[in-house]
Amino acid sequence: MLSYDKKLLSPGRTLGRETRSTPSLLALRSLRQAVVVCIVAASASAWATGGFEQVRQEFRPSDTAVLDRDGVLLQRLRTDATVRRGQWVALADVSPALRTALLLSEDRRFHEHSGIDWRAVPSAAWGNLWNTRTRGASTLTMQLAGLLDDDLRRGSGGRSLAQKVGQAVAATRLEREWRKDQILEAYLNLVPFRGEIVGIDALSRTLFGKAAHGLDAREAAIAAALVRAPNASAAQVARRACDVLRDMAPSDVERRNVDCTAMAMFASAALQRRAFDPSEGIAPHLARRAWQLQRDAAIETSAGAGARDRDIRTTLRAPLQRFALASLQRHLRELRGRNVQDAGLVVLDNASGEVLAWVGSSGDLSRAADVDAVVAPRQPGSTLKPLLYAQAIAERRLTAASLIDDSSAQIATASGLYVPQNYDRQFKGLVSARTALAASLNVPAVRTLVMVSPESFARQLRAVGMPLKEGGGYYGYSLALGSAEVSLLALTNAYRTLANGGMHSATRVLVEGPPDTAPSRALDAGAAFIVGDILSDANARTRTFGIDSVLGTRFWTAVKTGTSKDMRDNWAVGWSQRYTVGVWVGNAGGAPMWDVSGTSGAAPVWAEVMGFLHAREPSRAPKPPAGVVRTAVRFGDGLEAARDEWFVAGTEQAEFTPGAGADAGAQAGQTRIASPADGLIVALDPDIPPKHQRVRFIADRHGRGQEDRQALQWRIDGKPFARGDRAEWLPWPGRHVFELADIRGVVLDSVRLEVRGAGVATKR
User: Fold this and answer.
1) CB distance 532 to 498 below 8 Å
2) Closest Cα to residue 569, out of 605, 541, 544, 601?
3) How far, in Å, CA of 727 to CA of 721, rounded?
4) Alpha carbon distance 691, 625 (integer Å)
5) Angle between helices 96-106 and 234-248 in degrees, nearest 10
6) Residues 404 and 514 both lie in one domain
7) Tell me, what CATH number does 127's domain have?
8) Is 628 within the bounds of a domain?
9) Where does a domain end: 233, 249, 275?
């Protein structure tokens, strides 16, 4: 073991053995006078430096540490790709061995000179002149001056005479304005060591895997050797380090015992180590977003670069983040045979909007690990339905007990006929809105959107933080089934709006971020409560999900799943008393999964994370807000079991029969046109035989007997053309109005229809 005398590290003491053979005193004085003349000549343009504190405060690490709310490291984010710098290290935190090695190697009389080592100048000049030993006379102070001023930096061909004079001028000023310990501390933090490594913290952690205070004699010798020749071969570094190690030995015996062979092996191994791999963190996507948010906030407040690049404290919880990532990866491994590679997850605090977990990808399971699934736009499938029903209930178009017809429907759109289907390709007939939403039936959702209108629903989505790329008319009635693209973060926060009784506010990632905006009313509180009650109703969802569903939890939760077209995306989003959790599973490239639905893809992860959040914390159902009442209801024809139902005050109703619901198409005793739909656009194709392009008309006769069938009359543009509850018509271009009338000529229903294309010739 080598020991170090603290006196050797103090001012007034020269390190190492002095060289007695120097040029003559006359030559030394002459050279000093010449240099002084040069310095005086250059003083008019002398280099000026900021103070030590300014240099220290402007120092920026190349890696930014992203921390959780308690200061636990989540991720190291590389923010400067040109160099690798660690944290600024105080001189007191640098090992004595390193300070000794550096001064022995670079500036033995550091504590004696005032910036220029006059005794070293003639020796360097003499050696360089006769090529006996090429060396420089730059002191640590002069080298620091070169590191602080770009104009004085060493080029590929070395420094010019003007640069050397500038170094000398700057060094003398540094010595006047800075203390010796400040000069040494700044030098250790700014000096390049090898490749991209700058500063002692980056060097010690990269090459030796430890902090600077823990460097031993061998490691310190290698560090000192790299200062002299940063890019030398491992063998050259080892030889130089061995010389430094011998100089550090306090006695001749220890000097002779230095093992240069062992040093060569140690140096070779150290120089092959690589820096910290950013992929080893647990929140790479959140780290990038947090860094960008902090950078933007610093720019807005005119904060300095140091404020932008300091460690970032986020709102995440590290234990939750680890669990969520592990759960997501474990479940994706189980689904690997079904063409599933990617997933995303976000957890929000209901009260504050703080992001508690943010998993942007499945990591090494993905071919697109850099894509952040939390903010990537995807089709949400059925997860938009709760917001649609909430709007319809708030507008008093529906109640939770209203009967909606789940049967085949043809709905006209600008591009033609839209025919929605349920997930299982089956229809349930008349169902309550509670059952329709909880069981995620598609046709009732589309019928509900017909009541609300796509444009109005698009405005509602914008109000809860989901701005669509296009207007509601662009998506049409398929918007009820999630044809627009939204992000997981926006969708989860919209569900958080439901959890908060319709009050919407932005999410929060940074602990020290801009002030929160005040929550705003985005949904009716009563409607939000009723939708939450429906999504927590395990009995109501049994028609689709069965009795023992993965969506069931032992504590109160409200949850909705969704699957987009061709199984490209599936979702599970829901909330408890305190948290809202959103999960997406799919492929970043948009490839369809194989037989993966919301309940088999995203829901198991959602349930696991919710269970983790409430392992020691209860979740109770919310209390009904003012303006919500509970009433006993019964359903005619045994459609559904009697129950107590929640209503927005003023909409309550005790009995629901196939004609008493809010669905206008199911009113008892009223005959209507079931097909075609009002506004249908028919596009004629001249290549298709006319008999296959006929439009079929069907009447829905509620409460009428068989004898009334022939009493119905069909009219086109006011002229009769058929009788009975069914008819066919050979289309002709133009806009037409079709009416259904009874035997007295009273019009019972009418639809508008437009035919486009060439006319079809008829045989007479």
Assistant:
1) yes
2) 601
3) 9
4) 59
5) 100
6) yes
7) 1.10.3810.10
8) no
9) 275
Q: Which of 423, 411, 391 is nearest to 477 (CA)?
A: 411
Q: How does pLDDT run across 298-334, given as a tens digit for each residue?
A: 766 555 555 555 789 999 999 999 999 999 999 999 9
Residue 508 falls inside a structural domain = yes
Q: Is pLDDT of 728 > 60? A: yes
Structure confidence by residue, pLDDT tens digits, 258-274: 899 999 999 999 998 87
Is omega for the bond preceding 676 within 30 degrees of 0, making it cis? yes
Range of the structural domain that residue 107 is part of = 6-60+89-275
- Calculate ∠ Cα 518-522-524, nearest 5°: 120
- Give the rounded distance of the alpha carbon of 567 from its chain centre: 23
Question: Where residue 431 sits, what CATH number does that domain have?
Answer: 3.40.710.10
**Pairing mode, if any, of strands 628-635 and 643-648?**
antiparallel
Phi-psi region of 590 (alpha: psi -120 to 50; beta: other; left: phi over 0): left
DSSP 8-state secondary structure symbol assigned to residue 320: H
Tokens at 600, concatenated: 């088999």
Nearest to 183 by CA among 139, 215, 152: 139
Residue 558 is assigned to a structural domain of this protein: yes
- Tokens representing residue 145 in the block: 């001056």
Burial class for 358, CB neighbours closer than 10 Å (0-12, 13-18, 19+): buried
Task: With beta carbons less than 8 A apart as the criterion, state whether 532 and 558 touch.
Answer: yes
In angstroms, rounded to a whole number, what is the distance separating the alpha carbons of residues 10 and 34? 31
The count of structural domains within the chain is 3
Residue 58: CB atoms within 10 A of its CB come to 11
User: What is the β-pairing status of strands 655-656 and 671-675?
Assistant: unpaired
**Separation of alpha carbons 756 and 681, rounded Å:** 7
Do both 191 and 267 map to the same domain? yes
Q: Among positive and negative, which fits the CA dihedral 288, 289, 294, 299?
A: positive
* Same domain flag for 386 and 454: yes
593 with 675, same domain: the answer is: no
Are 158 and 136 within 8 A, CB to CB? no
Both tokens of residue 479? 């918007």
| 546 and 397 belong to one structural domain | yes
Q: SS3 sequence, 607-644?
A: HHHHHHHCCCCCCCCCCCCCCEEEEEEEEHHHCCCCEE
Q: Looking at the structure, tell me whether residues 137 and 40 fall in a common domain.
A: yes
- Whether the CB-CB separation of 518 and 482 falls below 8 Å is answered with no
Structure tokens at 266: 């140690």
In order of 195, 233, 271, the CA distances from 230 in angstroms are: 7, 9, 11
691/554 same-domain check: no
Report DSSP state, residue 743.
T
Q: Is residue 586 domain-resident?
A: yes
Task: Decide: 289 and 44 in contact? Cβ < 8 Å.
Answer: no
Q: Which of 189, 193, 229 is nearest to 208 (CA)?
A: 193
Q: Are residues 676 and 600 in the same domain?
A: no
The set of residues, in sequence order, having a beta carbon less than 8 Å from that of 685 and lying 6+ positions away, is: 693, 757
Q: Which CATH number belongs to the domain containing residue 747 in this structure?
A: 2.60.40.10
In one-letter notation, the amino acid at residue 567 is M
pLDDT in tens, 409-446: 666 555 555 667 666 667 788 899 999 999 999 999 99
Find where tokens 């086109």 sit.
Answer: 716
The single-letter code of the amino acid at 55 is V
Tokens linked to 267 = 């140096």
Query: In this structure, what token pair is assigned to residue 654?
Result: 């005790």
Residue owning tokens 């009433």: 631
What single-letter amino acid sits at 697? Answer: F
Angle, vertex CA 532, rays to CA 531 and CA 533, nearest 5:
90
pLDDT surpasses 90 at 671: no
Q: What is the pLDDT of residue 81?
A: 86
Give CA torsion, residues 660, 661, 664, 670, to 10 deg. Answer: -20
Per residue in 454-465, pLDDT (tens digit) is 999 999 999 999
The rounded distance, in Å, linking the Cα atoms of 740 and 229 is 96
- Domain end: 212, 245, 275, which one? 275
Note whether 189 and 70 are within 8 A (CB). no
Give the tokens for residue 168: 């000398």
